[in-house]
Amino acid sequence: MSAALPRPADDGSLIELRHGARRVLIAPHVGGAIAAFFDAGERGDVHWLRPASREALAACDPLGMASFPLLPYCNRIRDARFVFDDETVDLAGDGNAFDHALHGHAWRRPWRVGATTRSSVELHFSHVPSAAPAHHWPFRYEATQRIELSSAALTVTMSARNLSDRRMPFGMGHHPYYPRTRTTRIHTRVAAMWHSTPDLLPTHLGPHVCIGQLASSEGMLADAFDLDNNFAGWSRRATIAWPDEQRSVTLCAEAPFDHMVLYAPADEPSLLCVEPVTNTVDWINLDGGGGGGCVLGPGESIRASFAWMPLR
Known about the structure:
The protein is mainly beta. The protein has one domain (about 15-310): Beta-galactosidase, Chain A, domain 5. About 5% of the residues lie in helices and about 45% in strands. It has two helices and 26 strands. A nine-stranded antiparallel beta sheet has the order 10-11-12-13-26-22-21-16-19. Strands 18-17-20-23-24 form a five-stranded antiparallel beta sheet, with no helix packed on it. Strand 10 (about 110-115) and strand 11 (about 120-125) form a beta hairpin. It is globular, with a radius of gyration of 19 Å. One of its GO terms (biological process) is carbohydrate metabolic process. This is Aldose 1-epimerase. It holds the Pfam family Aldose_epim.
């Protein structure tokens, strides 16, 4: 393990899950995030997700975590504004520092720790609308993450329930970062890519040369393209491989995680994200649909799981 990453003995706010040599560090106070997922070893720890640094944990920075939850929507909402059931929802004052509201609000607020075992934990989140920053989402809801470690996988089950007396638009996902090297490859199958404007808002769904490379037997090099795009028609299975290290991790997801985000920027070669999400960018403002997401009636719930399966 990186010397910069503290352990629960050093930081009482962290929760450690164990199964054999496998470890997961959870930071409930940092947006209910996963801080690290690794195999401990005498010759050093092998990380399956990019571990949080001591500095990121001290700053409570979700963007510096290994993975963090996205809800009540994923990605961006154009100009932080949308119309739903003939009412305008303005999220511009919710404390989000981005021009277009990004990733909801649950990643910027602490989660409550529930039932815990040696290899599992439940994290709970409650949202009640108010005038306070990060509470401008006008629908009341509750959410849970169950994070469970086994010999085969790290499984995250996300669920949410609409506690409002009216319909609520909703989307969810997770935002994992992976170690990225010059030989890192991604293998997955998608039907089409959402092309976007310079500020990453969708323009149209169409082909891209990366789609064939992703589906090839050897996969696509993470350095092959400059990508920060959403993909539709995802097979709900993606493998991130480090062939020079003879290891890989496979992400498998249930419906409705039918969309995938691939973030592999050319100007930041240390960053790589392959994200399971239920909605694409600005899905709630897209004409013609196809962007995923759902509408939960009063009292209705949604629940789905995804898992990372390491292979050495």
